[in-house]
Structure formats: C-alpha cells, structure tokens
Amino acid sequence: MSKLLMTRRRFLASTGCSVAAAPLMTPMAFAQAPWDTRLIVLILRGAMDGLDVVRPVGDPHLAAARPTLAAGDGLPLDGFFTLHPALAPLHPLWAKGELGFAHATSTPYRDKRSHFDGQDLLEAGTGFDVKTGALRDGWLNRMLQAVPGIEADTAYAIGREDLLMLAGGAPVANWSPGTRLELSPQARRLIELVYEEHPIYQAAVLEALDLTEQIAASEAAATESDEDEDMAAMMEASSGNAAHLQMAEFAAQRLRGDTRIAAFSLSGWDTHGNQASGLPKALKQLAETIELLRVGLGPLWGKTGILAMTEFGRTVRENGSRGTDHGTGGLMLMAGGALRGGKVYGRWPGLEEAALYDRRDLMPTEDVRAYAARAMEGLFGLSGTVLSESVFPGLDMSQAPRLVL
Amino acid sequence: MSFIPEIAAIRFGYGLSPRHPAPASPEAMVEALQADDSMARAFPIGSMAETYADFQYLSDLKKAELDGDKTAKRKYRNWRGQNRRDHARMLRHTIARALDAPDALRERLTRFWADHFTVRGKGVSQRMVQRFVEDAIRPNITAPFSEMLKAAVTHPMMLIYLDQDKSIGPGSPVAERNAKKGRRRGLNENLAREVLELHTLGVGGAYSQADVRQLAELMAGMTLNLREGVRFEPKRGEPGAEEVLGQSYGGREPKLEDIHAALDAIALHPDTAAHLARKLAVHFVSDTPPPALVEALRLRYTETGGNLGAVTEALLSHPEAWGPLAKIKQPFDFVTSALRALGVTGSQLAALDRKATLRIIIRPMGLMGQEWERPNGPDGWPEDGEHWLTPQGLAVRINWAMSAGRVDGLDLPDPRDLVETALGSQAGERLLFAAKAAESRAEGVGIVLASPAFQRR
After folding, report:
1. Structural domain includes residue A4
2. Which candidate in B122, B165, B327, B394 is best for mutational testing of the A interface (most A CBs within 10 A)?
C-alpha cells in the first residue's frame, strides 16, 4: 500500500461510520432521525447547460441552433434524448432505473439571468415575489422546521461556504472536511469562557468543539468498513484530494450514521466559451461525486435520493465563442436507488424559435421546486400541504410526477 | 457618537498595533490618503509590463519548442516555479503594506474596491490580479468613481476574466468575415451584465436585459493583445448607435471613447450612488447600516459627482460611523490584523518563503473560507457575518491563533500586554482574566486572538 493511500485511509477512518461505535461519543451522535431515507442535494453553481448534458437529438431544431455543440455522439437514453459522453460513468445507472432527469425545468426566476440572484432564489425556494435581499432561510431548512425531532446532525451543509438552502431556524450542522481543533483542557475552558458573552459566536464555537471531539473520538476508535476501502480505492483512482471528493466522502460517512440530509455545491458550469472543453470537466466532477456517494453509501444507496439542481439553463443557440450564455429553462439530475430513474421527466416545449422563452431560451414547463417537493414527499412522507405552503410557499406541484419508488 | 481612536484603527484599518499609534482624527486619516503612497514603493507588486513580457517569453518558448529546442520544457518549468513564488510574494507584500502603514485606511479601501471589482486569474494571468489592483484600484481610491470604473472595466485582467476579449459585434465586419469562413464568433454579454449588476447600478437597479445587450454591443471591439494590453478594434465593434439607460452612444466608427462616455454616465446614475453608498456602509460599519449614514454617503456621492475621497470623508465624519463594532472580520482581515497586533513588521513578513506563506497564510485562510484571490464569482466575498461565523471557520481561526508563534522570527508577546495593545478598551473583563489565566504564553496569545472581541471590526 502506498504511503499516500495509508494517509487517505487514516483520514477515512477518522470520519468513518464507526462514529456510532466510538466510546467517547457525545449524546448528539445517538440521536434518532425521524426517517431512514437519505436525501442529498447538490447545487451546480454557474448554470449547467441542460441542453448539452441531456441532448434533445430528436428535436429537429437542435443541430441548427448548436452547430458545434450538438456534434458528436451522446450515449443513448430514451431515443429522443442522449447523454453527454462525460457522464458515461453514470450511464449504467440509467438502465437500473437509478439515474433520471427532469428537462425544461426552472425556478420562478426570470429575465435578469444573474447567477447570484438565480442561486439565491433556487436555495430560498420562494417565488420571485420575495425580494432577494430578504431571503434569510432556505427550503431545506424550512422542511426541517416542519418535522419534529430534528437534531443538529440530521442535516449537514458541507464545504467552506454557508449554504442558504440549509440556513434558517432548524438546527443544521455545517462542516468542511479536514478541519481540526486541538486544545488543551485549560485552553478549551478559557475559550468557552470568553465566548460566553457573545451568544451568536458561542453557538458556532460550541458546535466546532463538539464536532472536532467526535471526529477525534472516532479517529481513536479507527475501525474500517468495506465501504471505506472501496471509497479509498476510488479516490486513489480519480483526481486525488479534490474538494468535491472530500465533500462526497464526508457526506457518505455522515449519512451512514445519523445524518439524513446532506447538501453541498459544485461549481464550474458557467461555460461562456469553448464549452466542449469546459463542460466535461464539470461533468466529470459530478459523475465522480455521485459514484463516490453510491459506493460510500453501500446498501443505503437503495434508500437514497440525490437531486442536482442549477440556477437556470443556458441559451438554446450556441454563442460566438463556442459556448452558451445565461438562459432560463434547464435540467435537474436525479440519482439514487430510492428514485424512479430511467426516465427524462418533463413536457418538452420544442426548440423552434417561437417556442423559446424570449426567443432565446428553453421554455420552462415545470417548476424545479415541484420535483424537489415530490422527492421529499416520497422520501420523508411530508404532506402536500406542508410542501406547498411552508417549504415552497405558493408552489403548484399538482402536475409533477411521483419520483420515489 | 463621535471619533474614537481604537474604533478608527479596528473599523477603518487593520487594527491596533504595538508599532503604530491609533489614528488621531478623521481629518488626519483623510489627509494621509492624499499623501505619497510610500507603502506601495516599499513593497512593490510589479506592473503589467512584466505580464506582457511574460506572455512574450512564453510564446517565444513555445516557438523554440516547436523548433526542437530541448531546453524549452525545463525553461517552462522554471518559469512556472517563478510564477508561483511571485504570486505568493504579491500576497506577502499586500499584507506587509497593511502591517507597516501607520493608519491602514488606504489598504482597507484598496481591498474594498478590489473586491467590488473582483477578478480572478489562472495560470499566466494569476499574477495579473494584484497588478490589476495596483493599476486600476489603488491610484483611484480618492478619485471620481468614474475614473476607477473606466480603469477597471477596460483593464486587460477584467477583459480576460469576464470574456470581453471574446466579444465581437454581431453586425461587425469581423463577424461578417468569420461567417463567410464558417466560424461563428459573436457577442458576449458577460462584462456588460456585471458592469450594470455589480459594478454600478446594482442588481436592484433600473436597467433591463435590453440595456445589458446594448452595452455589450457598445463594448464590442474592446479587446486585448497579450503583448501590448487593451486596444480597440473598430472592425470588431457593432455598427450604429447603442442606447444604454436612455442615452445614445456611438453611431459613427466604433471607438473606445464611446465606451468611456457610457461608463462616465453610468457612474453618475442615481442607482449607482445608492448602490455604492450602501455597499460602503455595509462593508465598513454594519451588515444592516444606519439609514442616515447610507443617505449621507449617497448625498455626498451625488453632490461631488461620485468623488470617492469626499465620500470616504463623509463616512469617517458621520456620527453613525462610530457605533460599537458590529462586523466580523473576514479571514484576510483576521490574519492581517493578528499579525499587526503581534507586532510583525512588513519586512519580516516579506522575507517569508513560499512554503511558509502557504503554511501561515494561504492554507489557513482557505480553510477559514477565504481562499486568496478565489472568490466564488465576480460578486466577490460575502459581507454578512453569518457567512463567516461557521463552526469550521471559527475552528480554524482558533487553531491559527493558538499556533501564531510559528511565524518565523516572531517573539510572542506577553498575553497580558497583547490584550491591551490589540484591543484596548474593547477587550472586556472576561478576556482580561483569560489572558492572565492561560497556562502558557502561546495559549494566552491564542485566546486573545481567538476571542470574539478580536473577531470584530
């Protein structure tokens, strides 16, 4: 075994599913979540070009709108759509019904096509009637607020950034893989003392102290599971220590414990120029992330749903620099053994100019929030009322299909 | 409320220091902005001329390699190594300026406006980021905003970052010629959109998609040559006049002056005044700034034609600017102010090598959530405290504080002195007690720097 692999494995063991077996656990780790199913939400920042990822080759207008991008062979899906070759590693999941898509979908965001506003709205899960600056909590958090018995580690926002989607009144954990905090007992007491006067700071620092203690405890216990070994092998085979792999790995390990929901984001989708070289890089990361989650979750994969959402789609027509500009209708990807994959959902609006939004973008025919609502309805047994009133206020989800087996 | 020296140093600079007295008055701070920029001379960043020379060198190297020069690969590796070392040096010099500046308002304003005009580099353009700041931002922090806007928006780094170099007027001769050859290169809206959404009117401003499109057509033709810099190619420009925010520009042969004229007008738009006034108040004073302060800044901006020196003076002289410290330091501010409080000198910091820079500054800052020069997008780093006040962010700050002694050549101060020099009356009784009660000098220093009081500005 290489030295590098040893280091990786040590790290894997340190955050492994052995958390529950570790003797020094804080009570938090024994909490019972209200359900056994798992939900992972990935935000694809930068606006993924859905028309290139799941290509409507059956539409007669595609080739003219995208002379260079539509060239080249995709992988077969349902005859009308093909899959971008860079997602080949996920293609076997399609046949198993563990990979699916919703096309021509979007949030209610329209017209200004700003990444930042689009992402804020996607994560807030509201309509456009709410002023963007006023979006203080996110839809995943409001979902948690509607469920009794949520513990701090039921949901994890993973990565260095705060995810608006999980921000709000319900407790959530927030962690960036690899963070350590080692303090002498005296230093810890004094830190707690000086933080006592500042409640907002105190909550964050206590959570940090708890989390690092848990991780240190499981590191001391350091047993390894089969999933850990498989994941270690995968991480060795792919691009090493990249952030997306670390986040996927951490998510899988937490989800094998008491955590039920994990969310993080992947960037690199803003393909204004030379998309044929830029998009495959982002898709490779997405494929690696989903594969690592699948392997890492092992038998839990059958209870898992992954939703990958982006702020909006991109222009139907290729631009002058062999890329695409900010658009409207886009694509959601779904994966996991709990979902009804093997299908491209959504009513296809067509690509002829008159059918486009603003004569330039794919016309959205279903709200992306409706798919997310259906997934949560199926995974967590939430009622339509909670979903369309509290989680996504004002959402009409009546036309969206059932997504969970 | 009125001027308080300690608050002035912490809110409008990089904090208190055993090496510098706190600022004496708002007038003295404003006056210092007009004085000679000695910090820039002491810790140079370099100029775009060096960047152009780099591009020339690399392109010559490529030719040599194609001609069979066996040493080309090795030379390229050497160049890459030098590029990385220079990049780390630019960060050290940026921080060194903030350590040695008697009052660091110039440094803070430079960082603020650099973030307002966020750019990102990669590979060859990595060293352009701070040169962009040096060219377009730093000399203009007290100039009319239109000067900074024009300098930033027409800078090679910005053109590369927001794809302007790829934009061609759809009705231009170049587009026509390309079409005949079967190549499709056309308009790219990216820069025009960010100018309106981020740099000037703001996302809530009174502009439409049509304004974005028209501004993009007006700016088509502005491109760059990597050995000379920005230039305007009329043949790439869009023929005919463009109407942006109700005013018509161009119409004859497309030229750079039309773009300047539009930017001059956009800089004076009332929504630009309101957007910038609020952004300044949010950055320096509070995530939810007092409306009277924002209004005073907006008014001064409007009265003075967007004079940033006058607006800065209005900020410092407003009573609402002197309330209790309400912001959390971003990781760059935290690390820099901690080094300043510890008495690290600019030359000490500048003398670190790349490895030490990575270990002491770049990696910890990244783990705190602020990777140097890598904000998520052109909107720069988030302002709201919640964004920075995360468990892992604080964990890394605490860890960093506890091992501050690893800065080479630094003698750790007595924590009882540090709490005085770093925070003065802002410390609070518990922290004064904790600084005394720590088991070791390093832990005492760590607790002072990790304390909530030191996270605020």
Report:
1. no
2. B394
User: What residues have CB less than 8 Å from A39, skipping those under 6 apart?
Assistant: A260, A261, A262, A304, A305, A306, A307, A375, A376, A379, A380
Q: What is the pLDDT of residue A213?
A: 77
Decide if A160 and B369 are in contact by the 8 Å CB cutoff.
Answer: yes
Chain A CB within 8 Å of residue B2 CB? no
Provide, rounded to the nearest whole percent, the portion of chain A with pLDDT above 70: 82
Q: Which residues of A touch B203 (CB under 8 A)?
A: 112, 114, 116-117, 132
Task: Choose one of B223, B240, B267: the last residue of a domain.
Answer: B267
Same domain membership, residue B255 and residue B338: no
Domain that holds residue A257: 31-179+221-391
Gap between the Cα atoms of A119 and A110, Å rounded: 12
Whether A294 is in a domain gets the answer yes
In terms of Cβ atoms closer than 10 Å to its own Cβ (0-12, 13-18, 19+), residue A3 is exposed
Q: Which residue of B has its CA nearest to A202?
A: B452
Q: Which ranges of A48-145 would DSSP assign to H, the alpha helix?
A: 50-53, 62-65, 91-95, 115-124, 139-145
Please report the sign of the dihedral spanned by the C-alpha atoms of residue B75, residue B80, residue B81, residue B83: positive
Same-domain status, B86 and B169: no
Q: CB pairs below 8 Å between A and B: how many? A: 154
- From first CA to last CA, the distance across chain B in angstroms is 17
pLDDT tens sequence across B149-198: 999 999 999 999 998 988 999 999 999 998 888 776 789 999 999 999 99
Is B276 domain-assigned? no
Contact A273 B386 (CB under 8 A): no
Cα(B5)–Cα(B316) distance, integer angstroms: 12
Q: pLDDT at position A225, please? A: 58
Same domain assignment for residues B329 and B457: yes
Statement to judge: residues B114 and B207 lie in one domain: no
Indicate the number of domains in chain A. 1
Find out whether A309 and A42 touch, Cβ atoms under 8 Å. yes
Does one domain contain both B431 and B346?
yes
- Burial class, B295, CB count within 10 angstroms (exposed 0-12 / middle 13-18 / buried 19+): middle
Full residue range of the structural domain in which residue B185 is found: 159-267
List chain B residues with CB under 8 Å of A197.
Answer: 428, 430, 452
Contacts of A72 (CB under 8 A, 6+ apart): A85
- Residue B151 in domain: no
Q: Using one digit for the tens of pLDDT, what is the confidence trace for B383-428?
A: 999 889 888 889 999 999 998 887 877 889 999 999 999 999 999 9
Query: Do the domain assignments include residue B296?
Result: no
Sign of the C-alpha dihedral, residues B421, B427, B431, B437? Answer: positive
Helix or strand holding residue B33 (H, E): helix B26-34
Q: Are residues B252 and B366 in the same domain?
A: no
Position B304 in a domain? no
Pair B295, B8: CB distance under 8 Å? no
* Interchain contact, A320 vs B394, CB within 8 Å: no
Read off the tokens for A54. Answer: 């799941």
- The tally of domains found in chain B comes to 2
Check which CATH number belongs to the domain holding A148 and give it.
3.40.720
Q: How many residues does chain A have?
A: 405
Q: Are A257 and A28 in contact (CB under 8 A)?
A: no
> CA B95, CA B98: separation in Å to the nearest integer?
5
Distance from C-alpha of B212 to C-alpha of B368, rounded to nearest angstrom? 36
Q: Are residues B330 and B449 in the same domain?
A: yes
Residues of chain A found within 8 Å of residue B175, distances taken between Cβ atoms: 320
